[in-house]
Amino acid sequence: MFFLLTVTFFLGLARKWTLVTPPDEWVMTESGGALVEGQKPGRLNILVMGIDSVEGTHRTDTLFLLGISPAERKIAILSIPRDTRVVINGVGRKINEVMARFGEYVLRSMIENLMEIRINRSVKVDFQGFINLIDLMGGIDIVIEQPMHYDDHWGKLHIHFDKGPAHLDGKKALEYVRFRADANADLGRIKRQQKFLAQVLAKLQTPAMLMRLPTLLAEGLKHVETDLSLAELLELATAMRGGPIDVQTMSLPGEARYVDKISFILPYKEEAVKIGAKHFSNLMVMELDASFTVPLPASDTPASGVAELAGGGAKAATSPVALPATRSALLPATSSALLPTTSPMPPPAASGAPDLPASGAMP
To answer: Residue 86 has what pLDDT?
Structure first.
C-alpha cells in the first residue's frame, strides 16, 4: 500500500514535467536489458510487501501485487491473503512467512508460477513509514463499518474503534488496516485495506496535498526498500501523465480450509491464472519452472532440497499439492498425500481472537 502512494506522488508531480518520451514508445529499462524490449508498453508488475518488524519476525503482514499499464492508463491491485497456503519441500506454510524464512526470490517465484505472470520489481515497506505518511497527510477520514476491538499484549497492539465516522491519524490508521479479529478474518481485512486506500488516493488528489507532495515523497522513500530506480519511477510517471487513471482492486480467489488443524486460504489455480492474464500479463517471453533449490536453515532443510511452487509442474522433484481450479474442485484426490487432514473452516466467532501463528505475529 505504501509504495502505491509513492507512485501516486510521482503521477501527481508529472503534471508539471515535460513529456520526453511519448507514452506509446515508453519502455522500462533495467541494467542488462529492457523489461519490454522492442515492444509497446505492457504492464509493469510490482510485488509490494508490508513488513511486520515485531520482535524481528519480518513477516509480510500485507502482500499485494501492483500491475501498472501505461498504455491503458490502468492500475490493478491484487491483495494476497497472508494465510494463503503454499508448499515448500512438501510442507504447507502460510505465504506470510515465506519472505522471512526463504527470501524474496522464493516468494516472487511462487506468485509468478501460481498466476503464470512475470513480476518485474518489488518493494518492501515498514510500519513506521506508513504511520509517518498518514500523519503528514493530516490523517484520513473514514467510516468504521462495525465495532472493532482486539488486544494483543505480547505484540503491544490494542485496537478499539466504535462504529461510525472517524478521523484516523497514522497510528490509528495502521490499527484499522491490520484488524482481522472478526468473522471474515483476513478477507475482511483486505476489504478494509482497499477501502482505506481509496480514501488515501482521493485525498492525495486534493490541491492541498499536491502542495505537500515533495515532503510526502521524501518521507516515504526513507522507509522503502526497492529495486526500482528513481529514473524508472520518473519514466513511469511521465508515461502515465495527464487524464484519469483506472484503478481496479481485487483479491486472490481461494477458499478458507483447515489443513492438519491449521487454517489456510487455498487459492484457486485456474481463477488465479485468469486474473493474471487479464490484469497482470506483460509482453515478456518467459518459462515457468515448477521447482528450484532453496537455501534453507538446517531445521527446515529436507532431503530433496526442492521448493514446490504454487501451481506445480512436471519438473518438480516431488508432486506439489494440486491447487483447486475452481470452487467446485477444492481438494482433488491427487493432493491427499500432502493434505492428510482437511475439513471446512467454520467462521470464528466475531469476538474471537485472530488466527495467529505460533511465533506470535500480530494480526
So the answer is: 92
Q: Predicted confidence band at 116 (pLDDT cuts at 50, 70, 90)?
A: very high
Q: pTM of the full predicted structure?
A: 0.65
CA distances (Å), 211 to each of 10, 201, 208, in order?
Answer: 13, 15, 5
The single-letter DSSP state of residue 269 is H
SS3 content of the chain, % helix, strand, coil (to 5): 35, 25, 40
pLDDT at residue 283 above 70?
no
- Structural domains in the chain plus CATH codes: 2-344 (3.40.630.190)
- Distance, in Å, from the CA atom of 113 to the CA atom of 166, rounded to the nearest integer, reads 41
- Grid coordinates representing 286 are 518467459
Do residues 322 and 312 lie in contact, with contact meaning Cβ atoms separated by under 8 Å? Answer: yes
Report residue 173 CA to chain centroid gap: 18
Q: Name the 3-class secondary structure at 177.
A: helix
Which residue(s) pair with 308 in the sheet? 291
Of the two residues 305 and 172, the one the predictor is more confident about is 172
Phi, psi of 236 (to 5 degrees): -65, -45
Of 156, 196, 204, 151, nearest to 176 (Cα)?
196
Q: Where are the alpha helices (DSSP H) in 116-205?
A: 127-136, 170-178, 185-204
Measure the CA–CA gap between 262 and 63, rounded to whole angstroms. Answer: 20
| Residue 179 pLDDT > 60 | yes
pLDDT, position 348 = 40
Residue 49 grid cell: 510487501
Residues 6+ away with beta carbon under 8 Å from 41 = 23, 24, 26, 27, 28, 69, 70, 71, 239
